[in-house]
Here is the input.
Amino acid sequence: MPTNAPSRKSPQQLRSHRWLGADDLRSFGHRSRLKQMGYTTADYAGKPIVAILTTRSDLNPCHTHFPQRVEEIKRGVWQAGGFPVEIPVMSVSETFMKPTAMLYRNLLAMEVEEILRSQPIDAAVLLGGCDKTTPAQVMGATSADVPCIFVPAGPMLKGNYKGTTLGSGTDAWKYWAERCAGNLDDCAWRGIEEGIARSPGHCMTMGTASTMTAIVETLGLSLPGASSIPAVHSAHCRMVEAAGRRAVEIALENLKPSDILTARAFDNAITCDMAIAGSTNAIIHLIAMAGRAGVKLNLERFDEISQRTPIIANVRPAGEFLMEDFYDAGGLLGLLNRIGKLLDLNCRTVNGKTLGENIKGAEVCDDRIIRPLTNPVSSAGATFVLRGNLASGGCCIKPAAAEARLLKHSGPAVVFKNYADLKARIDDENLNVTPDSVLVLQNAGPIGGPGMPEWGMLPIPKKLLRQGVRDMVRISDARMSGTSYGACVVHVAPESAVGGPLALVRDGDMIELDVQARRIHLHVSDDELARRRREWLPPKPRFERGYGKLFSAECTQADEGCDFKFLRFGAPTPEPDIY
Here is the structure.
C-alpha cells in the first residue's frame, strides 16, 4: 500500500455526522426523515453514507441495466457496513439529446458537484458509461473532492447481421455509405438496424464510451479491470458489488480524487488513450478533467505521448475487433501490463494499491486483439495534433482510422457555412466537388454548434460514393464520434463562430494537410485573410436565456476542454452551513 495512505476516520469524523450526529433540533429533523422512509437507527448510525449517483433513464439505452446494478452496489455497501442511498442525476444520452450531449456535459458535472457537496455524503459510487456521463461525473466529483469510485456501464455485446459481426457506430457509418451508394436494400438495412445493438451497455467499439471508461480506470478511479467487462457479463455484477464494498472503505480512509488525480496519473491516462486508439473526444475530456484537478494539460503533451506510444489494441474503428473480444483477450489490465514501461506504475488508485500492483501479472491470451509491442497496429499513437494558419489553437486527426493516401494531401476547399447548409447541398448533383476536394464545415464548434456536435465525419457526397470514394479530407471545428473513421480533421481552434481562421475559408481555397509534419495550412495570403476578416460578421447569438446563454458565455474552446471558465480549479467552495 502507498506510504501516504490516509488514516481511518472515526464515526464522529465522517462528513455525514454533521447532519445526523448532534443532539439538536436540526439533526433530529434529519434522523426523523430517515425513519420516515422506514430506516432504523441501526441502519445508518455511525456508518458511512454512500451515494450511488446513477445516470439511468428510459432514453439512455446504454444504461438500461442500471436498476439491477444499483441493487448490487447497495448489497456491497451493506456488506461493508455502510448506508447506501440512490440519487438519480441527469442522464446525458448520447443517442437522443440534441443538438448534442456535449452541450450538457458541464451541466451534469455541476449537478454532481453540488449534490455531493450539499448532502450528507461520505463517499460516492459514480454509475455511468455513456459518452459524456463518464467525464461529467468525474469532473463534478473532482471539484467536490469527496471520496468516489467510478463504476462503468460496460460495453454491449457484439452486433450481428446474418453472420457478419457489427460494431455500433462504426458499421452504421459504413453501411449507410453503402446504402447511399445504392448497394444496400431496405430489407438489409432493417436487418442491420435490428442487429447492431443487441444488449444493454455502451458502444462496443473503441468509441468515446469505451475510451473514457478505460481512461478513468487508468487514472485510478475504478477497480482494476472494471472498464473492459461487457455490461451483461456476470463478472460485471460481481465488480459493481465489490465497488460498493470499496466505497465504504474509501469513506473511512478519506481517499479523495485529489489524492489520485496527479499530473503523472494524467500522463498515464493519455498513454492508455494512445495505446487503445481512443476517441479524439478524449483530448477535450481529459483537458477538462485535469483542469478540475488543477493539472494543466496542453495539446502538445498529447502529441508528445502519442509519438512514443504504439497502438496495440486492435479494436474498431482503428482495428478489427470489438470490446467483447478485447475483454476475452485480457482486457485493459493486459494491455496496460504490455505498455508498463511507458507508465508511471507508482500512481495511487482507488483500491488502495498502485497502478503497478494492479497490473502485475495481467496476461494477454490473444495477440491478434492486444498486439505485442513488436507488432503494433501502428507505431505511433491514436491522435496527432496539427497546427497552422488554419488552426492557431490546434486541431487533431486520428490517422489510424484514415486512408493512408490522404495523410499528405492538398486540395480545393468546398465550404459549408453550417450544418443546415451541409445537409441541403452535400448530395446536390451540381455540387462542385471531386475526390481531391477538401470538405470544410464552419460554425460547428462549442459556440457555433452549439455544443460542438459530432458532425466532424462529414458525409461523402452521394455522387462520389457511387464512384467508389469512401474517404476524403474533411475539416471542421466540430467533434466526431469516437466510433467514426476517415481523414477527418476536427476540433479546429479557435472555432469559426468566434472569428477563428476557419471562418475565413472560401470555396476553391487550397488547403494543405501533412499529418506526419503535424501541419495544416490554408494557402491564402495574409493580406487576403486580413481583408476577409474585416468583412466577417459574427453569427447572431443562439440563446437569449437559460442554460444555453450560460454555456455560450462561459464555455472555453476545444483546446481548453470546453469547460466553463467559472468551474476551473481554484479555492475550494466552502462546505455548506447546516442550520
Q: What stands out?
A: The mean pLDDT is 96. The chain has three domains: 11-157+199-359, 160-195, 384-535.
